[in-house]
Amino acid sequence: MKSGSDSADRYLSLDDQALVQQCSVDHYRSSGPGGQKRNKTSSAVRLRHHPTGLSVTAADDRSQRVNTVRAVRRLREAIALHVRAELGLERYQPSELLGSCITPDGQLAVGQRNDRYFSAVGEVLDVLAACGMRVSDTAERIGISTAHLVKFIQNDPKMWDRVNQMRAEAGVKPLR
Q1: pTM value?
Q2: How many CB atoms lie within 10 A of CB 55?
């Protein structure tokens, strides 16, 4: 995906309505179980985010409104996982948002349901990429232990997969 000036936080800091305004929104009929209503109404939602080129769908529910909310959340997740900013490590300091997620005992504590979660994930992945995918260097830059950083990554299977994909692209062994 795009990098450089297109930092993930540029999009993640937008409210849902502003983020959706940057997208093409398609409503369509989803297939599969769900009865007649699901097969007769255009309840499924596809969002195509123009600035990043990312596309997500949600067809889990019979309600278009519920599917739109889910699609926006999936778009935020995709942006956090795939849009990288180039960081100058010599000047890097954790953002106020990321700093607020670090506990006094040095753990990165922000749950997946927290509004700040995807911004924190995006920043962690930006620092990881800037550190050549070295987890220990990344943890040191953020101000947490390597074990706590690995635990944070492990707690989200999609983040774990993305980190290992990024490590493979960089020619680094996967995390275990």
Answers
A1: 0.89
A2: 16
